[in-house]
Amino acid sequence: MTTGKNSRHFIAAIFVATAISALFCIVRPTLFKVPDQLTVRFLMKRTPTCSVEVIRKYCIENNYFPTGGRWLNSSYFPDLCRFPSNNITKERLRECLTRRNVTKLVVLGDSNGRRYFMATRKLLQKFMNCRDIKTEIGVSKPDVNYFTKGTKLNASDIVVHHRDCGGCISMAVKCRDKTSEIDLEYIAMEFYMDTEITTVRNRWQNNCHPSKEAPLCRQSNTYQEFIFGEYLEVTTRM
């Protein structure tokens, strides 16, 4: 994410991962009382087709991700837009990812986010071979080895705290076919703001020179700062 172009691709990847995995979510949620089927179908006809552009526009205008929707007969209907189909072919999926030049998909969240990740992996395996790259070990605290593996981050700079979610275990896979490859990763994140991982680098304050080869010249006071400002920064540029 060192350039604006890479940032756009990465943001698009998050949206694509969310939209795809939501469409094929393997979770069997508790159903809530909703309007009858005809009412839902009528409302859905008046909304645009779900796309990266529609979701991005909503986020820019409202400063948050769209979350409204309703359940009907085990199917989810978002308020903002409608899913174009209940079935997506491997050809359509490949074309979508290739057209947007997506090379990395990231899913963030708690145990439900992990299920979205598994659903997305299942989709990619329709036309790609996916293999495990790394998985967190243990659930009571974030795994320092996971977040330093394959990066220039130093374990000595990372401070970890207790994690409440027992089903939140970060993991990464690499999916390949004959012509392309995609990195797919689930990053455990329970809250919008917490301190499950922070970093301390006071000793570098006056003599650190940032580069692709050296660790970052900054500190993270929250887990979210660490993920977006450090971990994803170095893993997407290496």
UniProtKB/TrEMBL annotation:
Protein name as catalogued: Uncharacterized protein
Taxonomy, superkingdom: Eukaryota
Naturally occurring in which organism (per UniProt): Ridgeia piscesae
